[in-house]
Amino acid sequence: MLLLGDGVETVGIARNDEQRARVTADLRHMRAAFEALLAERQNAGRAEDAEARVAQLEDDLLRIATELAEAPPPEVFLAPADAARELGMSTSSLYRAVRRGEVSVLRAMGGPMRVPSSEVRRLADGIRES
Question: Which pLDDT value is given to residue 126?
Answer without folding.
Answer: 78
